Amino acid sequence: MTANIAETFATVARQEGERTALIEERSGRSISFADLQRRAEGFAALLTAAGVQPGEIVMLMVKPSINFICLSLALFRIGAPVVLIDPGMGYRNLLRCVARVEPLYLIGIPAAVLFAKIFRRHFRTVRQFFCCGGGCGLFGGDIGARLPGDPGPGQAYAADPEDLAAIIFTTGSTGPPKGVRYEQRIFAAQLRSVKEYFRIGPEEIDQPAFPLFALFSVAAGACSVIPDMDPSRPAAVDPVTFVDSIRRHRVSYSFGSPAIWNVVSRYCLSAGITLQSVDKVLMAGAPVPYELLQRVRSILPERAEVFTPYGATESLPIVSIESREVLAETWRLSREGAGTCVGRPLPGIRIAIIAITDRPIAELAEAQLLATGERGEIVVSGPVVTRAYQNNPEATALAKIKDGQDFWHRMGDVGYLDQKGRLWFCGRVAHRVVTATGTLLPIPCEAIVNEHPDVFRSALVGISGGPGGSKVPVLIVEAEKKRAVNNKRLLAEVRQLAGRSPLTREIEHFLIHPSFPVDIRHNAKIFRERLALWAERKITR
Question: How are beta strands 164-169 and 179-183 bridged, if at all?
Answer without folding.
Answer: antiparallel
